[in-house]
Amino acid sequence: MAVKFYQSENQVPLEMHKVRMIQKLSLLPVEERLKKIQEAGNNTFLLQNKDVYLDMLTDSGVNCMSDNQFAASFQADDSYAGSATFLRVQKAIKDVFGTPYVLPVHQGRAAENILAEAFCAPGKVALMNFHFTTTKAHATRCGATVEELVNPEIALVPQSNEPFKGNYDLNNLRQRIDEIGKDNVAYVRVEAGTNLIGGQPVSLENMLAVCDICHEKQVLSVLDASLLQDNIYFMKIREPRCKYMEVADIYRLLADRFDLIYFSARKLSFSKGGIMTTKNEKIYKDLMSFIPLYEGFLTYGGIDVRTMESMAVGLYESLDMEYISQGPQFIEYLAKELDAYGVPVILPPGGLGCHLNAGAFVPNMPHNQYPAAAVGAALYIAGGIRGMERGTVSEQREPDGTERYAELELQRLAVPRRVFTLSQLKYCADRVKWLWDNRELIGGLEWTEEPEVLRFFFGRMKQIGHWQEALAEKFRKDFGDSL
């Protein structure tokens, strides 16, 4: 239940925690910010963290752990086999999800790799509500193709009142399974909190219907639960069926219906590492041999044991609405602030972060000048804020070398949980508003170094023209000696 303020004009999300450790930040002058983003090839991934004021790149592995998580890490058992730490993680998974079979992996994309190795091959099709960059890269590396089955008239509309834009188009799902043939469907994956379209959630009703279709058609159902705690928050406040359900009951219901669940513990549990879990012994045994091959022994899967102890505690904490509400509530606050300023953002707000609609920021910029990346570079110049490009740069080229243009050009401003103060979010909103008011200065980018795979991680670009210098000069004119 949200806390209400007596004076309505003071209504803001309320932190349900107190800060007990700090990390000093640095805000460089605008001239240095201009230099740093150009040295980084206009790729925010290549910025040094010491040169960033607000790191809103991701919520992966940068959330603040609780005091109990840090305390638990000191009881770690680093035995290679028969580790008591693994038994505690296994118990936490059983208590939270109700699934008896647990395979640890070093992070979420390691689970995606195993998923692809086990089930993807030439001629196979992986069906998804929407793809994630690494999930798709692993599937296509193994020869499979990926199809997205959200309803584009709902999911790809930047602003609407639709509460669950991440839902599958169920009729389309049935039709595609029949057309492809069940033996050629690698798996049907539900991403709880569709990352690339604004962290948009999936309803419980839709998830269960997907499982019913998969069971009827005899194809594998997979839940990517990395953003599940955000998704469950949205279920609780947007879906009447879930309003009076306990969070734990939703976890159990989903785990009972999906054939396989995996997640990045860098997101779910706020630690690091990852997990694959199932109630199906055959699936467990089919996947088990990949763990020592790619990750480590079955009791640690490439994860540091202190981290595993923190994961176990974090999983229990993910059942607490006062914990899981913090991300979505602060994201909603930032999105509403920006919307009130007239800045185009994805609405309703999803989990993970606030998403700027870069396509509307620079509507006349062609896709091949990479609007979302350009807005991200401009935002760093404007405020030392590091976001993440979630547009065409995050796609991969087609086999013939042509660009696959993103359905949405987004600049993601992730809000790591329990990390930023309200004044820092207000600073972010202020600098985005200034950039919006000066958006006519933003120009495009072009490649100087373009890797073939996952180019958004380490590719480099340069500005077209000299628009970045003009933006920095305008900042100095408007803000004077201020940082």
In short:
This protein is α/β, with parallel strands linked by helices and 483 residues long.
Structural class: alpha/beta
Provide the spatial order of strands within the biggest beta sheet: 2-8-7-6-5-3-4
- Apparent shape: globular
Radius of gyration, in angstroms, nearest whole number: 22 Å
Range of strand content: 5-15%
Structural key phrases:
483 residues; alpha/beta; three-stranded antiparallel sheet; 20 helices; globular
Walkthrough of the structure:
With 483 residues, the protein is α/β, with parallel strands linked by helices. It is 41% helix and 12% strand. The protein is built from 20 helices and 14 strands. It has helices spanning 30-39, 67-72, 84-97, 108-119, 133-141, 152-155, 170-180, 204-217, 228-238, 247-257, 281-288, 290-295, 305-317, 321-324, 326-341, 358-361, 371-383, 422-437, 455-458, 467-479, and strands spanning 54-55, 101-105, 125-128, 145-148, 185-191, 221-224, 260-264, 274-278, 353-357, 385-386, 388-390, 410-414, 445-449, 460-463. The strands form 4 sheets. A 7-stranded mixed sheet has the order 2-8-7-6-5-3-4, with helices on both faces. Helix 17 (371-383) crosses helix 18. The longest helix has 16 residues, at 326-341. It is globular, with a radius of gyration of 22 Å.
Describe how the helices and strands are arranged.
Blueprint: H1 30-39, E1 54-55, H2 67-72, H3 84-97, E2 101-105, H4 108-119, E3 125-128, H5 133-141, E4 145-148, H6 152-155, H7 170-180, E5 185-191, H8 204-217, E6 221-224, H9 228-238, H10 247-257, E7 260-264, E8 274-278, H11 281-288, H12 290-295, H13 305-317, H14 321-324, H15 326-341, E9 353-357, H16 358-361, H17 371-383, E10 385-386, E11 388-390, E12 410-414, H18 422-437, E13 445-449, H19 455-458, E14 460-463, H20 467-479
Parallel strand pairs: 1-10, 3-4, 3-5, 5-6, 6-7
Antiparallel strand pairs: 2-8, 7-8, 9-12, 11-12, 13-14
Helix pairs in contact: 1-17, 3-13, 4-5, 7-8, 15-18, 17-18
